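LemA family protein
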Amino acid sequence: MRKILTVLAALASLSLTNCGYNAIQSEDEQIKANWSEVVNQYQRRADLVPNLVNSVKGFAQQEKDVLLGVTNARAKVGSIQATPEVLNDPSAFQKFQAAQGELSSALLRLLVVTENYPQLKSDALFKDLMSQLEGTENRITVARNRYIKSVQEYNVTVRSFPNNLTAMMFGYKEKPNFSVDNEKEISTAPKVDFNPAPAPSK
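Predicted structure tokens:
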């Protein structure tokens, strides 16, 4: 009896392997890991915002609308629970992406405004914050690209025969991915030119 059970277990394991179950499980876990890194890097950016806003406020208090826009965008990002469950809810994922896109746009508007304040651009604290922000944006891009690739691989797996039958049986569905609408903007880290423009030649 024990031998029969062993054989049945081996056959079941082989069957699950051949039907893609193990691949789906592995790729699903990889997506969760990559998503966690995306969320961590976005949180790192959000954590920089208060200090950045305060730094700019010290030199450009009159830019209230821009500063308020950044603050509100950060608050909206913070109101969204970016749990792994978001990955199975296209609507929730879209809200997350939209909120992050709004914060990206608000930060870009803030950086454009800082060009009008030479003293701010030469401030040591502001320069340090900008360096941290640029590095964080670069890490966001890397994390997003890894997530995008892992989701693409997973979605192909759960759509392919016979894996699609296994996915249907165990409730695995395609996962939402970042759209290309703001990909160009996201992949361009904010930059501030701290060097004065050369004087025009006479």
